C-alpha cells in the first residue's frame, strides 16, 4: 500500500494511560507529601523547577521506561503528558542531576523516612513479613563509593552493594541504603533495621527473613532483644555439616524431600537455637535449591542430596518454617524488577549520596506502582511494570477543547473502552484491609 506523509500540530502522547497514575497520585495526596517534606532541597530562583515537578516528572519518566538519566528525555518532549500532570514545563535530564546533586546523607535519611513511613503508616497492614536483602550493582565509570568487592557476575569490577528492606505482603520497599562495593551483606545491619522499624511507626513486624549473608550472632541477638521472630538461612560451616552428618532420623514431606529439626549451639553463642534442616534427593529433584556437603563429597548418602538449613525462633512445625522461608525468594524477584524496570542499577551520578537519592526515588516510584497494582488493578497476579507499560499505559491520546471543556481523547477500540472506564475514577482507600492470603 502506497501512502504519502503529512504532519499535524496536535500534541499527541503515546502514554495516555498515565492518566490513571495521575489520578491515583491526586487521590492519595502524593504532591502534598512532597510539599510537606521540609528536608527536600528547594531553589529560590524564579526560573528553577518546583520540587513537585522535578520529582513527579522523574518518577513518571521511570514509569514510561526511563532507566537512566538520558532516557528521562522521553517525557520532556511530550507536551500532552506534561498537560496531563499539570507541569508547565518538563525538566531536562540535567535538571534532575543538579537537583539530586544537592542531596546529602542527612537529607537522604530524612527524605527516605518521610516517604517510606507515609506509605506504611497509611496502609491497613500489621504483623507483616519483612525481608531484608543485599544486591550488587556493577559500575563501569568512576562513581564515588564504587569499589571492588563481592561481584559474582562481573568479578573484579567496581560495584555498589545496597541493602533493601521489602514488605512481602504488599510487594513494597520499606527502606533502602546504598553502600560501597567492598562492604559485606550484613554491614551495619542493626542500624538499617532500626531505621526501617521507625518507618513502620506503631505497626508490628510479624517475621523477619534473611539469607545466609546475615547469619551472624550479633544479628540473632538483636532480633531476639527486639522480640522479633526470624528465619535465617544458615551458613554451611563445618560444625553444621557435622551436625547434619550425625542426623539419622528424617521425616518425609514429599517425594524426594525430607526434613528434621533440632537445637544447635555454635561456640560463640550463649545458648542453643533451633535449626531446621531440609534435604532433597537430586535424582528426584534435580533443580532443587540447596548445598552439597563439601566435607562429605564422596559419602554414599550425602552425595545424593542437596541440603538447606535455617535458624529460627519460631514455634511452628519444621515443614511450615521451611515453606515460609521459601516465599522469601520473592524478594529476589523484586530486586530483579527494580533493576530491569525501575533503573535501580543504572541511575547513577558521580557523587555517592546524589546516586542514593535518585535510587530512593526509584524505590518510591516502585511503591507507587505497587499501590496502583494493589488498589486500582486488583489483579490476582501482579504484572511487572514492563507488562503494564504496554498493556495499560501505552495508549495514544491528545487534548481537544470542546466548548469550554478540555477533553482527553483516548485512542482505544470499542472492546477496550469498557475496561478503561472501569479503571477511570476508581475509588482508592488506603485504609481498607489488605488481604495477605
From TrEMBL:
Keywords: Membrane, Transmembrane, Transmembrane helix. Residues 4-412 form the Transposase DDE domain. It holds the Pfam family DDE_Tnp_1_4. InterPro entries: RNaseH-like_sf (IPR012337), Tnp_DDE_dom (IPR025668), Transpos_IS1380 (IPR047960). The chain crosses the membrane at residues 357-376. SUPFAM superfamilies: Ribonuclease H-like (SSF53098). It comes from the Bacteria. This is IS1380 family transposase. It comes from Epilithonimonas vandammei.
